[in-house]
Amino acid sequence: MNMSLLDGRDGRKIIGDLAKYYSLRQEQPSAKSFGIYDTFDWRLFEKSLVLYSSEDELILHRLSDYKIVHHAKVSSFPNFVWDFPDGSLKTLLAPILEMRRLLKLAEIHSQSTIYRILNKEQKTVVRLRYEEIRRVNQARKPMFCAHLHVEPIRGYPRYYRKTIGRLGKLGFVQIEPETIYFEALKERNKTPGKYSSKLKLQLQPEMRSDEAAKIILRSLFRIMKVNGTYIGKDLDTEFLHDFRVAIRRTRVALSQIKGVFPVDTTKKFQREFAMVGKLSNELRDLDVYLLKENAYKKMLPDSLRDEINPLFEFLKNKRSRVLEDVKNGLSSRESTKVFRTWENFLDEPPEGSPTAPNAEVPVVKLARKRIRKRYTEILSTGAQILEAANDEKLHALRIECKKLRYLMEFFSSLFPDKKISILIKELKGLQDNLGNFNDLYVQQAYLLKTVDELPLSDDQAKKMTLAIGSLIGNLEERTQMVKGSFSEIFARFASPTHRGLYHELFVTTKGKAGP
Amino acid sequence: MKILAIYSNKGGVGKTTAAVNLSFLAAEAGLKTLVCDLDPQSSASYYFRVKPKLRANAKGFHKGGKNINKSIKGTDYENLDILPADFTHRNLASTFNKLKRRKRRLNRILDPLRAEYNLIVLDCPPSISLLAENIFNVADYLLVPVIPTTLCLRTHLQLLSFLKKKKYDTNKVYAFFSLVDRRKKMHKEFIATISREFKGTLHKSIPSLSNIERMGINREPVPAFSPTSQAAKYYRVLWQDVKATLLD
Ligand SMILES: Nc1ncnc2c1ncn2[C@@H]1O[C@H](COP(=O)(O)OP(=O)(O)O)[C@@H](O)[C@H]1O
Ligand SMILES: [Mg+2]
């Protein structure tokens, strides 16, 4: 049981008062400092987990009851999951953290004293741990919270109940075990779960379309800004990734939510965001390949595994140069101006008189129309591919799917939650297939192109050619497999059930949807 | 999960002392540990300051199950629980005698606890009765304190031949020397000969030390009240040996 002090009371004194009722023994106080860690996008918190580190120890708690799920010894703090020592903690965290870096969110300094309540035999029957928590490591400094953990001892339940009762009367109140976590973060002005790269929009169906579009775009701009400030710090690859996705979504919003802003304005920003997006294309490619280092090595036979190292060395070196270019590019006068004019545009109040044909249309109507359009197109392209498989068409289909996906995500709050979730999930299945196909295809080309740029000795070059050859063989095999499963996945996507759902949501609803 | 019985058919050889200190060290090393005080004299319970139940006619223990869960008490130390000597233990052997599968009653009693603990240490009373056979059946290892004297050695040989006769696996018997007087030349010679002749011998011994005797006054394991003493060191070494030989 965890308790906390009512304001203004002196915890030590209250515990001392217990000595009137029980034989009480106080042990030497002990001090410990902890760092609280999570990724920037709160991946541990989202899974109800908390990671603490203290000296050489990592402790993973479950947030709901603060039970320790795992702990491990480390020689230095592991920033990424691949830096963890092999073991169950690493296995558990790998799919959660993926490529994200663990950031220290807060540091807390705890001073705790154990008090034991003894029975007539001088046997411990209840253990109390009184803990004062401070932001700085000095006992004199004010604390930001004090906690009392009351631990029952097996076989002595009556003492436990009575102690809790007494403490309640003396000024302690029961609290949830995870309170320390939230208080420590609040102290640092951090709100768990606040940032997520997912859009969480709440639109009203009858809202003007231009207003709705601005809500969507503002939300994307926030994601862009937040991540943009971290790209240069190079903490992990996902700041750039989320930044780029927000730009891509912005471009899709501008092109797909048609006719809500003046044509010139739309065209101008589309052009400008294309420019800003392009600045980091190469950096993102490098990130993708560097993240694949281990996966690639696993594809290679043992004998060739190390021969590929020069490739990654080369990519790493190249990346540091390219990162500098990106930093400069994003802070250049042109880019800054794009962001500034965009922000101004987003902040402008809606025009009184419409400046574009769809500006005043209820957003739900426009949303249905746009989604319908994309969906029909996907069905027809997909059908063509089924007739005659064609790499270019697959590529086109992937782009169309992405547009549809973004549109459905922008507008999901306008439609029944369960139903649109099913459609998004099916679409995601199709996108994964197309995305894998594209990735594998692009990777092969990239590897072939890059191997020519590598400065290698003849001997190295021979072995590298072997390794790359082996990799490409492997990738090609996978490409064919992915391609082979397209028809089945597409059939699912385009099944009568799903078509019916699309029809229900985006065509017939309440008879209101326009042509 | 391992069950380790500290056993001898002689009294006063250091069984309880070893049971208390070894189980403390096991718990300290992170093993969830339970000491079972099977001796009606309840010395182990006494060392952990737990009062044995005075219920004259408690039916609980021999049935196991829920009753036993209720009797378990947490000690003052993390990971360490005790099943105190219940006064019904006094008649445990005769109770078992009336039941079916009477030589395996203790298995039935302890089986439900296997999931909860990593180690169960049995502090046994000195006897070769039916209770002893129950102990031989349930324990993974018997750890026998032997005082290096002719008499004690004879007792140990008797135990081994008893076990052989009853077809118990004598490989699970390990002896260690207890209450060794390091000044006595005779003790030293004894230890040397015996260690040569028996394979089941831990080459560690516990000397006779005043700090160990003080446990009776302090009512705590030696490593708890005097973690850096010689006495604590000897038990740590013995524990390391037990762990490496029997538990890993
Ligand atoms: N190594 C030792 N040094 C000094 N005294 C010991 C030692 N081992 C046991 N004793 C004392 O000998 C007595 C009997 O020990 P105990 O462990 O109760 O034996 P058992 O359980 O075999 O009957 C106790 O008073 C105990 O304090
Ligand atoms: Mg004893």
Describe the model:
The complex is a heterodimer of chains A (515) and B (248). Chain A folds into 3 domains: 2-187, Hypothetical Protein Pfu-838710-001, CATH 2.40.320.10; 197-359, CHAD domain, CATH 1.40.20; 362-508, CHAD domain, CATH 1.40.20. Chain A is built from 18 helices and 10 strands. Chain A has helices at 11-17, 43-46, 88-97, 157-170, 179-187, 209-231, 238-256, 263-278, 281-291, 293-299, 309-331, 333-347, 363-387, 391-411, 417-453, 458-484, 486-493, 496-508; strands at 2-5, 23-26, 30-38, 49-54, 57-62, 68-73, 103-118, 124-134, 145-152, 172-175. In chain A, strands 1, 2, 3, 4, 5, 6, 7, 8, 9 and 10 form a 10-stranded antiparallel sheet that branches. In chain A, a hairpin with a 5-residue loop joins strand 5 (57-62) and strand 6. Chain A is globular, with a radius of gyration of 29 Å. Chain B has helices at 15-28, 43-47, 60-63, 66-71, 92-97, 105-110, 130-138, 150-165, 185-197, 210-213, 215-218, 222-225, 230-247, and strands at residues 2-6, 33-37, 73-74, 80-83, 119-123, 141-146, 173-180, 201-207. Chain B starts with a strand and ends with a helix. Classes of the chains: A alpha+beta (515), B alpha/beta (248). Chain A binds chain B through residues 116, 121-124, 153-156, and chain B through 48-51, 70-74, 76, 81, 219. Adenosine-5'-diphosphate (ADP) binds at residues 11-17, 43, 179, 206, 208-209, 212-213, 215-216 of chain B.
